[in-house]
Amino acid sequence: GSTIGILGGGQLGRMMAMSAAQLGYHTIGYAPEGDNVSGPVNDDFVTAAWDDGEALASFAARCDVVTWEFENVPVDTARAIPADKIFPGPLALETAQDRLTEKRFIEGLGGRPAAYAKVDSSLDLVAAVDRLGAPGILKTRRDGYDGKGQWRIGSSRDADALRFPDVPCVYEGFVEFDAEFSVILVRGQDGEIRFWDSTRNVHEGGILAASHFPAGNSVSEQVAPARELARKVADALKYVGVLTLEFFATHEGPIFNEMAPRVHNSGHWTIEGAATSQFENHIRAVAGLPLGDTRTTASAVEMRNIIGSEIDGAHALLKDNAAHLHDYGKAEASEGRKMGHVTRLFLDTRG
Ligand code: ATP
Ligand code: MG
Ligand code: MG
Questions:
Q1: CA–centroid distance, residue 144 to ligand 3 (Å)
Q2: What is the tens place of the pLDDT at every residue in 245-262?
Q3: Which end of the chain is more exposed for a tag (fewer CB within 10 A), N or C?
Q4: Does the structure show a pLDDT above 80 at 1?
Q5: Phi, psi at residue 113, to the nearest 5°?
Q6: CATH architecture of the region 179-346
Q7: Which CATH superfamily is domain 115-173 in?
């Protein structure tokens, strides 16, 4: 069989590896010390720095194809893998790693992000708040996830009082949205694109709490233009694999929030709720196999994240006949950490 390398050591890699195993592939993980938090499904894991050229070269030599599960893999690491072996290509990482680059790229394709300004200092922030108004959110351009590296700005007073983080940022106007949703697609090596149904995503404290299908009218009316943008993004990047775009549904249509060049938390429901999961189709795409049917197979699906100590006793959730539990096997249940998820499937009961 062939071998698939996965850069990153989190739960997304674990779930990818489970799909890869089903298809007969061997997987090897790669991440720096301390980043292998979700445990591999086998013992084949390389623990080395992202810039360890020797370790990367021998990892790449052992793999037929390499992908990533973590969007902050340094671009140079991805570029160190032979270009005909890494999917998606490093350009997707480069574009999505910097919120400013990403917003400009989206505008270039005709998409609409929230009003934003480049902000590199306290003075810039005050000027941005003057120009775009408040409330808004200051975000670091790089390295944020789960709402980390973000500050709510309620007024220009807040802008004055904030101790400015010492890194490049963007300020975004706060979007009054009806709902949040994501578009998840898979693009094959031949350029074929398939979409999963969009879910309505509910965030609490900047972290995804739940995804719901059906997503409701406010979302379903806006899925078509959102997909059109997502398709342009995937084609422009010659993307191979699963790609996610997050949107705000507003009365003026879909506003682009951000993209993730990878499988996505809001797609975990596809493991049980779709004919082919995002993880399986990602593996199929990067391995050059035909893509699987993305249709939803249940009449309703709900995915809920299990955060921090909620994981204790989570097996009890299985008393619910509709529930499927996923425990990522993380050793430490620190606050705000994604420890697992539970998907509840509602099947049509006919007759
Ligand atoms: P992820 O874990 O999805 O990568 P992240 O840390 O990159 O998250 P964002 O997606 O930028 O964070 O923001 C997290 C959440 O905060 C959003 O899903 C949304 O609920 C809220 N949010 C972010 N930006 C805005 C905005 N401009 N207007 C309104 N709400 C926002
Ligand atoms: Mg993000
Ligand atoms: Mg997000």
A1: 9
A2: 999 999 999 999 999 999
A3: C
A4: no
A5: -80, 170
A6: 2-Layer Sandwich (3.30)
A7: ATP-grasp fold, A domain (3.30.1490.20)
